[in-house]
Amino acid sequence: xxxxxxxxxxxxxxxxxxxxxxxxxxxxxxxxxxxxxxxxxxxxxxxxxxxxxxxxxxxxxxxxxxxxxxxxxxxxxxxxxxxxxxxxxxxxxxxxxxxxxxxxxxxxxxxxxxxxxxxxxxxxxxxxxxxxxxxxxxxxxxxxxxxxxxxxxxxxxxxxxxxxxxxxxxxxxxxxxxxxxxxxxxxxxxxxxxxxxxxxxxxxxxxxxxxxxxxxxxxxxxxxxxxxxxxxxxxxxxxxxxxxxxxxxxxxxxxxxxxxxxxxxxxxxxxxxxxxxxxxxxxxxxxxxxxxxxxxxxxxxxxxxxxxxxxxxxxxxxxxxxxxxxxxxxxxxxxxxxxxxxxxxxxxxxxxxxxxxxxxxxxx
Length: 364
Description:
Number of helices: 13
Low-confidence stretches: 1-7
Helix content: 25-40%
CATH class of the largest domain: Alpha Beta
Number of strands: 13
Distance between the termini: 35 Å
Strand content: 15-25%
CATH architecture of the largest domain: 3-Layer(aba) Sandwich
CATH superfamily of the largest domain: Glycogen Phosphorylase B
């Protein structure tokens, strides 16, 4: 006999995609949402990175047409608006089918038609902006949102006062419970007396960081064990048997163990990545993506963390064997000061804060 459906269960549609940074905060919220009795659905692009990540969570996934909105000339600028319009129509149909109480968006271009559709369907929508200044996708979506969450105090001045809420970024709770011994065994390290450096170059890796680390490896391995997450297709087979050096394309469940073992982290300055470092109280060196290769958001993120005493910042244009080694030695020398600054930060329990906003919105 079929069980009767519980129509009292609250429903939420989550959206966001294009990069892992637009998905992992949504995943971080899911356990708390389930604890609050929410039935979760997800709207993303047909084949974006979000599809695999969300399906791994056992959450119903709906793909829509998605176009990129660019600030520069590209022939696709003429066709992509039609993809966005199609995605908007698809989103309206999906929201009418799912009947959510609230929509939560982590940004990325696929989220724009979903948030616009939420306004059309009179469903409250909450947006989260990770970077210090809002990206183009969120700028387009903000007028249709009821609340806009952000990570940095500086971001509040860029947002409508009545909508802005300083929440911080949701952190996957499993990152806080890693086992250093598991990581030591996984990496086949032998010398327990050496401190460990973890390099995180983003989901696709960073050629300049990979090159700098490998160029400095003979010097680093005199004093440190090195875990290098170098990105897909970036393994160097000539270094496979190097004692004290462990390279991986990426880490999934093992990442929490690697963080637990790491005494220093070298990272790009994506907002989610640096918020994880703050939550973990890990001394770090940030190498933001250059302004020439981005809209400059990572530089702003990194400078905010530097001004608060959380991070040492090394601009990509200044990256060399010499400057990187100097940065590593400086951070290890000042390690306790960085940890103390992070301990004294006003970082919030972002998951509780955001869940509170979602609950408030879902009652309206």
